Amino acid sequence: MREDDVYPKLTGIFRELFLRGDLVLTPGLTAADVEGWDSFRQVEILLAVEQEFGVKFHTREIDSMHNVGELARMVATKTERLGSAQAGNALGSSPSQVEASISSLPAMR
Question: Which of 51, 52, 83, 90 has its CA 20 to 30 A from that of 96?
């Protein structure tokens, strides 16, 4: 999947989680730009992205993401490399591992 193709689905996830139909995602968008984007919302975003795209994130990957552009790029890379059907089985952490590690993660900034 190309990075440009990731944004419509990411936008849907963000709009649903933040209850904001007017939310527009840009590559540079960070938690500081969106009211209510805290560490708990971060977990919800990551779990929703994992489910929607069939990918799994390693804690190290999560730590490296600082904005929406980096999230979109990582999703595109994972889905391109493995194909969306294989992405969830071949890479990353389980949702419970993501949840367990959230206490040590800052919100994307």
Answer: 83
